[in-house]
Structures are given as structure tokens and as C-alpha cells.
């Protein structure tokens, strides 16, 4: 699994 | 940022304004579970610690985080102090330990890194997924709800529902990136609203009162 580049979800 | 995500966040904002409007205009927090609202404070505080660690994302992101922390604390102030007499703890009886215990254990086991911040972040994700349970439990117990309260829940449900197409969109536009903790918890969270939305669509949006079958 590749994680999203940044945790930008609120 | 994609359209699903933007509308989801706006729906989340709307839900908070609907709740504030309900409390201020009726001068009452009747029908609102303070346990769910306390859980949201905990969700936001544990998730947004990155505000203080220098992991800056964007102005939008930081402003929203501060708004969610501030407004959730303000709602607690309204419920616990300003309109305290309208808060009836005898129907808000969901046991918080049934939520806090399992989500804390889950966070300790399933996290991206065994560090203080990452465990708290995972905890906040699991906690948010089930934070609505005391509210839904209360609704189930009383069997009815003020229309404005159902609009509040609908806005929250739309917010959660739209995160799913947002992840699908991001999966295809960000090279197959996926955040399994957020996605699994998010699907569980959205599923919790299914029963509510059935009654909301078949009754409230047809102009009837929100009433559960006896």
C-alpha cells in the first residue's frame, strides 16, 4: 500500500 | 483538494452551524447527546496536534482545524453551562467506556508508527467513526427528533459519505495512494448513518416528523 503524500484530511 | 472533499468539508461546517442554530434559537440542547459532542472535542484535539508540530499543510487546513476545535468546545460550553437545564442526562445513557476502551486498544495495535502522535491520530480516526453512537442511541431511545436535529445529522452523514468518493478520486489521481486506517474507519462510520438516512429520506424530506416505528 502506498500512503497519500500528506495527511491533509480533516 | 477535489470537489467531493470540498463539499464534504463544507457539509461538516454546515452541520456545526445547524447545531449552533438549533441550540441558540430554541435556547435548548434537548435531543442532542452531550456524550457525542464530548467525543468530538476529543477527536479534534487528538487529531489536530499536528497544528503544533510544524507539519503545516495549508491555511485552509489550519483554519478548519482551529474552527473544529473551537466550535466543538463552544458547543460543550453551551450544553454544560449556558443551557445546562435543558440537557437531560437520563436519556443520554450510552456508556462511553464501550467506545473509549476498544478505540484506544485499536489505536495501540493498528497505527502507522508506534509514536505518541501517530497513536493519538489513529485513536482519533477510530473514535470519530463511532462518536455518533451515543447520539443515535439517544434517538433510538426517544424514537423521535426535532427536524433541525435531523438536518444536523444529515449534514454530518453527507460529510462522511462524501469522503468515500474523495478517496476513490484520490486513489486514481495520486498514483494508487490509499490510507487504510482512514478508509476502513470511514466506511464503518458512514455505514452507521444508513438507518438514519432511510428515515430521513422517507419521512423528514417528505415533510413529516422524524419518528421511528414503535
UniProtKB/TrEMBL annotation, chain B:
Species this chain originates from: Botryobasidium botryosum (strain FD-172 SS1)
BP term (GO), one: vesicle-mediated transport
Keyword tags: Endoplasmic reticulum, ER-Golgi transport, Membrane, Protein transport, Receptor, Transmembrane, Transmembrane helix, Transport
Gene Ontology molecular function terms on file: ER retention sequence binding
Name of this chain's protein: ER lumen protein-retaining receptor
Higher taxonomy: Eukaryota, Fungi, Dikarya, Basidiomycota, Agaricomycotina
One Pfam assignment: ER_lumen_recept
UniProt-listed PROSITE patterns: ER_LUMEN_RECEPTOR_1, ER_LUMEN_RECEPTOR_2
UniProt entry tagged with the keyword Transmembrane helix: yes
Localization, UniProt: Endoplasmic reticulum membrane
Keyword Cytoplasm: no
Parts of the chain that traverse the membrane: 59-77, 98-114, 120-139, 151-169, 181-201
Family: Belongs to the ERD2 family.
Membrane topology: Multi-pass membrane protein
GO CC annotations on file: endoplasmic reticulum membrane
Amino acid at each position: 500500500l502506498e500512503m497519500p503524500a500528506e495527511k491533509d484530511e480533516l | 483538494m477535489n470537489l467531493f472533499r470540498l463539499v464534504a468539508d463544507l457539509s461538516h461546517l454546515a452541520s456545526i452551524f445547524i447545531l449552533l442554530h438549533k441550540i441558540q434559537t430554541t435556547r435548548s440542547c434537548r435531543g442532542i447527546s452531550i456524550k457525542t459532542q464530548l467525543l468530538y472535542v476529543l477527536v479534534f484535539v487528538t487529531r489536530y496536534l499536528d497544528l503544533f508540530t510544524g507539519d503545516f499543510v495549508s491555511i485552509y487546513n489550519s483554519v478548519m482545524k482551529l474552527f473544529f476545535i473551537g466550535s466543538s468546545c463552544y458547543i460543550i460550553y453551551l450544553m454544560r453551562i449556558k443551557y445546562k437545564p435543558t440537557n437531560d442526562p437520563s436519556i443520554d445513557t450510552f456508556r462511553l467506556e464501550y467506545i473509549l476502551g476498544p478505540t484506544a486498544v485499536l489505536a495501540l495495535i493498528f497505527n502507522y508508527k508506534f509514536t505518541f502522535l501517530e497513536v493519538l491520530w489513529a485513536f482519533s480516526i477510530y473514535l470519530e467513526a463511532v462518536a455518533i453512537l451515543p447520539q443515535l442511541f439517544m434517538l433510538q431511545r426517544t424514537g423521535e427528533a426535532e427536524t433541525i436535529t435531523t438536518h444536523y445529522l444529515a449534514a454530518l452523514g453527507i460529510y462522511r459519505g462524501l469522503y468515500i468518493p474523495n478517496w476513490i478520486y484520490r486513489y486514481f489521481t495520486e498514483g494508487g495512494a490509499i490510507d487504510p486506517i482512514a478508509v476502513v474507519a470511514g466506511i464503518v462510520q458512514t455505514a452507521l448513518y444508513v438507518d438514519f438516512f432511510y428515515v430521513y429520506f422517507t419521512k423528514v424530506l417528505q415533510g413529516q416528523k422524524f419518528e421511528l416505528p414503535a
